[in-house]
């Protein structure tokens, strides 16, 4: 009942849908802190382990051979959640979680107040560039969602892109680490029905934002890394193929980072 009240009363104030100005402020901080321009946030999905629900078959059974629900989150440069979705089946894969989420559908339909394309800082060579989300290889490549170049022994300019993207993407891993360091119940197998688990996880994320203090984030993060207490990752969330436009956007970001390396 307490978690339900937290979700009902605090969700709209502590994880509200960002406005256009708020998106721009988030992008500015990603550039200042992680040197990735036009970035709206880092995205990732994690498993929350639960007791096998009665008569659920394999719906909640995941690749780690446990039962779980999925927490999908978008995080800003200050380790705060700007979007969360909780409750997808643990077996979900191949783009099902992200593609069916409000975030995925909203980004595709351009209904989330995302700012218009703008030139990258200090460079107009690439022309106006879209604002993007950064994710790992589990996510599909889109004009608004950047993932690393695949493979090994990549050209230096592609390695530069992957390094910059990985640095920016780590904020979501850190946010999950801080979340579990604070709310250690998320590290155990939750002995409750899935809809109650959803409420507990939602309340934990809301309270995470409520309590987030940049001066304390490092302590929580270091504690989680030291003890190895991290939520299990999601595998095979999205396909590897992207549109021609998406590949073009990634190439332009790569060229921008390469120009920065050359000027240093």
TrEMBL record:
Pfam families for the chain: DDE_Tnp_4 (PF13359)
Family label: Belongs to the HARBI1 family.
Needed co-factor(s): a divalent metal cation
Cell compartment(s), UniProt: Nucleus
Signal peptide limits: none
Residue ranges annotated for the DDE Tnp4 domain, each copy included: 43-209
PANTHER family assigned: NUCLEASE HARBI1-LIKE PROTEIN, PTHR22930
Cited InterPro entries: HARBI1-like, HARBI1_dom
Main location: nucleus
Keywords per UniProt: Hydrolase, Metal-binding, Nuclease, Nucleus
Any one annotated GO CC term: nucleus
Protein's UniProt name: Nuclease HARBI1
Record GO terms (molecular function): hydrolase activity; metal ion binding; nuclease activity
Domain of life assignment: Eukaryota
The keyword ATP-binding is assigned to this record: no
The keyword Metal-binding appears for this protein: yes
């Amino acid at each position: 009942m307490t978690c339900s009240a937290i979700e009902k009363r605090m969700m709209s104030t502590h994880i509200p849908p960002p406005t256009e100005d708020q998106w721009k402020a988030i992008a500015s901080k990603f550039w200042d802190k992680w040197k990735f321009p036009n970035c709206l946030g880092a995205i990732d999905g994690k498993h929350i382990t639960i007791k096998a629900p009665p008569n659920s078959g394999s719906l909640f059974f995941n690749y780690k051979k446990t039962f779980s629900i999925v927490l999908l989150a978008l995080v800003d440069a200050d380790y705060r959640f700007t979007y969360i979705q909780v409750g997808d089946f643990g077996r979900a894969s191949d783009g099902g979680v992200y593609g069916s989420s409000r975030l995925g559908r909203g980004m595709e339909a351009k209904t989330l107040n995302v700012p218009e394309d703008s030139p990258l800082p200090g460079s107009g060579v690439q022309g106006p560039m879209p604002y993007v989300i950064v994710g790992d290889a589990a996510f599909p490549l889109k004009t608004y969602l950047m993932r690393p170049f695949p493979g090994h022994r990549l050209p230096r300019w592609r390695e530069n892109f992957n390094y910059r993207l990985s640095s920016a993407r780590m904020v979501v891993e850190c946010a999950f680490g801080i979340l579990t360091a604070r709310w250690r119940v998320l590290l155990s197998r939750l002995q409750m029905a899935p809809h109650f688990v959803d409420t507990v996880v939602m309340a934990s994320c809301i309270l995470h934002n409520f309590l987030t203090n940049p001066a304390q984030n490092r302590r929580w993060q270091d504690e989680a890394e030291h003890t190895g207490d991290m939520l299990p990752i999601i595998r095979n969330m999205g396909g590897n193929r992207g549109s021609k436009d998406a590949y073009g956007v990634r190439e332009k970001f790569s060229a921008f980072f390469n120009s920065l390396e050359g000027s240093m």
